[in-house]
């Protein structure tokens, strides 16, 4: 059951990351006015870098049950709880709780913690 929870957390992390990237490209950046243009490109790339990082975190959570090292499992799960927990807190604070992102990130944290 613990392994299934970690894998669900990983799939959830990947889904959240894909939604994050898609919403950034379709909703945020088309309306954003950022000058100069190269700064706009930089901010867009940083936004998508977090998308790729979250996908990588999700892949690690999915793969964790097949790792032979208990120490690797522990550090991966604890690190991902920290990454997604901080992201959830930042999202909730920045949007004053009016965005569903913090809830989705918190769900990933809860599943990962339960699978720990």
From TrEMBL:
The chain crosses the membrane at residues 45-63, 75-93. It comes from the Bacteria. Keywords: Membrane, Transmembrane, Transmembrane helix. This is DUF3325 domain-containing protein. It comes from Bradyrhizobium zhengyangense.
